[in-house]
Amino acid sequence: MLYLERVPTYSILYGAFATVPILLVWIYVGWVIVLLGAETAAYLPSLLTGVQRRARAHGWQFLLALEMLQQLDRVRLTEGKGLSIDQLGAVLKVDALQLEPVLENLLALDWVGQLQEDRADATARVVLLADPDVTLLGPLLQALLLQREPSTEHLWLNGRWHLMVLRDVL
């Protein structure tokens, strides 16, 4: 504000060139408004869907995978037999975009499947294909948490992770 109050003094000294700094200030203010609007517009879908959790630390995708498998196991015996990505996001309180990489890993492991019905109004459902009582947890741990390599072999053997089944963590 102090700068704008002294504009008449600058205009006497610099003439027409005194308007250049004022123009630069207004360009800056305009861009700040535009960028704040873009930031708000980008964040608005997460606000409207009630996303309350953000990626926290290492192992976030593994945690999401376990929670997704827990929810799919819970609805496995219901009529729908599965949940859509949006329903999973709402139940887990995360954005559906955060679930996509986890879903890709679970699809690659053949632990879940996506069902697309013929109806036009139906959304794809994710269903649990793996039997939690016999499916070993090791492949999920290797895919999302800790690769089994020579440097981590003692941890794998002493932790007996390769012997755990999915039901142990659900």
From TrEMBL:
Transmembrane segments: 12-38
Protein name stated in the entry: Uncharacterized protein
Keywords: Cell membrane, Membrane, Transmembrane, Transmembrane helix
Organism field: mine drainage metagenome
Cellular compartments per GO CC: plasma membrane
Cell compartments where the protein resides: Cell membrane
Pfam families per the UniProt record, alphabetical: Virul_fac_BrkB
Topology with respect to the bilayer: Multi-pass membrane protein
